[in-house]
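Tutorial, part two.
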Amino acid sequence: MSISFINLGLGLKIIQQQMVQDENDFFHLIGIVQNNENKTIDNIYAIGTLIGIDNVTIANYSNPVEVHPLNPSEMTPYDITIYDKDQNDQIKNHSIGFTFNSSETENIKNLDIHSVNSRSDLLGFYYISGRITNEMDVISNNTLVVATVSDKDQNILGVWKAQAEPYNIPPSATASFTIPITDNTQGLRISNYTLFITNS
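Running the prediction step on this input gives:
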């Protein structure tokens, strides 16, 4: 199915965008977006509008982006799930827009991801593991690692995430993480991945 899309970012630049179908036949609008503002932004929502024949709007779906707050030039993945499968065959086009709030305060996330490795198992599941060191003077609360996985043509297949263990990382301490990609229709096609980190 060939589906085009319209970027209504207005301050956020879409770096990559795909519509994909998961193993349960749900469509997802996924991608990576960059903060094109000269200030930090927060409360960022990705909004997908589905368009059918004769440019009639079918539905709107939204979801928070994965990394926030977002400093100038920083990037975040997003994943909007289309929960109504009955709409799948009606979609001819879609648009992506964003809403956010601006902040004058930069968000410092001095967290180092290292010792990263990946593997597949016999069932076709794919795992990305590594460690995170908190190089800040304050605790990193609610620490999550987010992965976008791509095929050999650099098309994004999915957005996956897992919490650090421990979830709250003290200053100078190190935590571990493992992100399981449990959709084996993706796991068998993964050629590359990009990691992002977020906390509160």
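Confidence is low (pLDDT under 50) at residues 1-6. In part three we will examine how such features are distributed along the chain.
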